[in-house]
Amino acid sequence: MPSQGVSKQTLQRLPVYLSYLKGLREAPKYISATAIAEALNMNHVVVRKDLASISSSGRPKVGYVREDLIYELEGFLGYDNTQDAVLVGAGQLGKALLAYDGFVEYGLNILAGFDTDPFTVNTEVGGKMILPMDRLEDLCQRMKVRIGILTVPGEHAQAVCNLLIKSGILAVWNFSNVHLDVPEGILVQNENMAVSLAILSNHLKERFSTK
């Protein structure tokens, strides 16, 4: 029986499997954990354990029905239950996120953006309005929004985070470069681009140093 208590590492890998399965051009009816592992250059034991933690439909020597596995992954990850979100900080990054229409595929619907810049407020990006900050709390509470996306400069991040929490936000997707102090029960997911770049740079360094 698949378990709901998967590790953070498994949770981070599941969207990778889902993206691969949905992107297959030939779309085979069945696919095995080993085939997924080989395609993604991953350990087949890890992939098999990850999939077994969320699905019991795999068959020995056959694998999974691809469409069924996609359905189970989407259900486990919550992609079949769209969550509304707000975004605060409509600079270049914020506007890019507002304009990206692919979030809906992953169960995320950004209702609106918020900013303090008078030249940005009351404009539209990607079909979404950018509203003044004094409307944030009312919209979040009225629409029961629980996810806040933070794309403000670091010096403003904590204050905006506090306002999001006051507005009823329970999960913050943090694109700023600062650590946020939040009460117990509030989730912060840090999207640190510097860390990602360091990993890429180190990988290239190791590759070229061996030649």
UniProtKB/TrEMBL annotation:
Question: Cross-referenced SUPFAM superfamilies, in alphabetical order?
Answer: NAD(P)-binding Rossmann-fold domains, Winged helix' DNA-binding domain
Enumerate the residues binding NAD(+).
89-94
The CoA-binding domain covers 78-179
- Give the keywords, sorted: Cytoplasm, DNA-binding, NAD, Repressor, Transcription, Transcription regulation
Location in the cell: Cytoplasm
* Keyword Nuclease in record: no
Q: Name one GO molecular function term.
A: DNA-binding transcription factor activity
Which Gene Ontology BP terms does the record give?
negative regulation of DNA-templated transcription; response to redox state
**Principal localization?**
cytoplasm
Q: Which domain of life is it from?
A: Bacteria
Asked if Transcription is a keyword of the record, the answer is: yes
Q: Which Gene3D superfamilies match?
A: NAD(P)-binding Rossmann-like Domain (3.40.50.720), Winged helix-like DNA-binding domain superfamily/Winged helix DNA-binding domain (1.10.10.10)
Could you give one GO CC term from the UniProt record?
cytoplasm
Sum up the protein's function in the record's words: Modulates transcription in response to changes in cellular NADH/NAD(+) redox state.
Q: Give the quaternary structure.
A: Homodimer.
Q: Which family does it belong to?
A: Belongs to the transcriptional regulatory Rex family.
Query: What is the protein name stated in its UniProt record?
Result: Redox-sensing transcriptional repressor Rex
Origin organism is Candidatus Acutalibacter ornithocaccae
Biological classification of the source:
Bacteria, Bacillati, Bacillota, Clostridia, Eubacteriales
